[in-house]
Each structure stands twice: as structure tokens, then as C-alpha cells.
Amino acid sequence: MKLKTLLFFIALNTLLSLRLFAQGREIIPLNQYKNPLDETKREVHTYNKIITYTPDSIKIEKIYTLDNKLRSTTRESYNPELGYIEAVTQNFDSLSYHISTRFKNVENDMWLEIFFENGEEVSRLQYSGNKMFRFDIKGIESPIITTRNPLVPRFIPDRSHFLNYFHSRYKHSKQRESGIVIVGIHTDKNGEVTKIECLNYGEAPNYMAKEVLAIFNSYDFKFEPALDIKGNPKSSILRYPIRINYN
After folding, report:
1. 63, 69 contact by CB (below 8 A)
2. Residue 114 and which of 33, 87, 92, 149 are 20 to 30 A apart at CA?
3. If we measure between CA atoms, which residue out of 101, 89, 100, 15 comes closest to residue 59?
4. By C-alpha distance, which of 89, 148, 140 is closest to 113?
5. Which segments of the chain have a pLDDT < 50?
6. What is the pLDDT of residue 247?
7. Where are the beta strands (DSSP E) in 31-127?
8. How far apart are the C-alpha atoms of 61 and 68, rounded to whole Å?
């Protein structure tokens, strides 16, 4: 009888532990751009994001492919040596090779990302606030210091002209709520636009995304191409968030 009682309590404790673990674990289906999936738009379910919290309040996010290959892992916790909450993100390619690590101060959004190729450091990009970036490339003595991220396309002449264009054309007649539409502007290595699409149909209202995309597609964009981790022009995608406020 005592053995049966002991086994019962062990089984009960295990069940409760698993239930508590499941409550602290969230699985989010993602599309090919690692944004929440919108099945109504027939988006391709490409990744799963798994979010867990440890007993000491450390947040861990992992993104896997559907065949269970790890693409990124982020560990967010308080760093007592630095005195702030730090998020450390490691990224991996399709062959599971480590390609970059980002160290981010969550409290002020400053960060440093180190890029690797074949296990060797190739370059590092640092954002020090106030729109200041420093891009150091191995083998090149002088760093690139700029007010925009050199790894993403840059508006020519700047984005203020486009914003004026957008706000002069966006209609609020159908608007019933606030939201954010993340627009993906695809560019080639010459900076020419090849495609414009919504990246977050799973979060943005459909009518809002449709109207925002119509304005983006009517604008004559010009870009300076993005650079790769070795400083060469590359094809890329600019993730451009548009916030719509409902008054």
C-alpha cells in the first residue's frame, strides 16, 4: 500500500511539473520572414518560434525549421557584470553553421553583432545610439561609420520624401483600428526594387495592409544597395514598419 501511494504521488508530481512547464512554453508558427503566420493568406508555414522562461526568469526564444533545425536562439536576462538586461542572439544557416552573434542592451537598444564565415570572424557591426553605426571588416583598416545600417538598403535621397508622399495618400475612411504593417521592399545588388509585399499579415488587418501596399507600389523608390558582411553590394530586403493610428 505504501509503495502504491508513493508511486501515485511521484506520478502526480511529474504530471504537475509537465503542466507547469507547458504553461511557461509558447509555440508560434512563423512565415518565411519569421513573422506570425496568417493562414487565411495561404502563407507558407516555414518556422516555429518556441518561447520558454526558466525558474529564474530568463527568457529563451528559439526558432526552428519544420524539420527541427535550429536557426536562431535568443537568451534574455539581467547581466550583473554589465548592469543591464542583455539579449544574446546566435544565428545559424541552413547547414547549422554559426553565422553571427548579437549582444543587445535591451534597455537602450544598443547592440554589437559579430559575423562569422567558416568559424572565423569576418566583420562586426555596432550600433551606439543616435543613429550611429560602425562597420569593421576584417582586412580593411578603416571602418565604415555611417548614420544608417549598411547591411540594409538606404533611401535616396532619404525617407522623409516618401513619408510625406505616404501620409498625403493614405485614406482613413475604412480604418477601424490601429495597427502596424511591416512592408518588405526587396532590392537587387544595384538597389533596384524587385518586389514589395506585406510581411506580417498575421498581425496587420487585411484592409490596412492592402491600402498601405497600394501606396508603396505607386511610389518610385530609389535605393543605395545593402552591403554583405564583407562590404560588397548584395540583394536584400528592407523591412519597413508603418504605424497606423486610429483616432
Report:
1. no
2. 33
3. 89
4. 89
5. 1-23
6. 63
7. 47-53, 59-65, 70-79, 84-92, 98-105, 111-117, 120-127
8. 14
Grid cell for residue 242? 508603418
At residue 15, what is the residue type? L
For 41-82, the pLDDT digits (tens) are 677 899 999 999 998 889 999 999 999 999 999 999 999 999
Which cell is 138 given? 576584417
All 3 cell numbers of residue 48? 516555429
152 vs 140: CA distance, rounded Å: 20
At 28, give phi and psi (nearest 5°): -120, 115
Predicted confidence at residue 151, as pLDDT, reads: 96
Name the grid cell of 174.
475604412
The grid coordinates of residue 100 equal 553571427
Question: If residue 196 lies in a helix (H) or strand (E), which one and from where to where?
Answer: strand 193-198
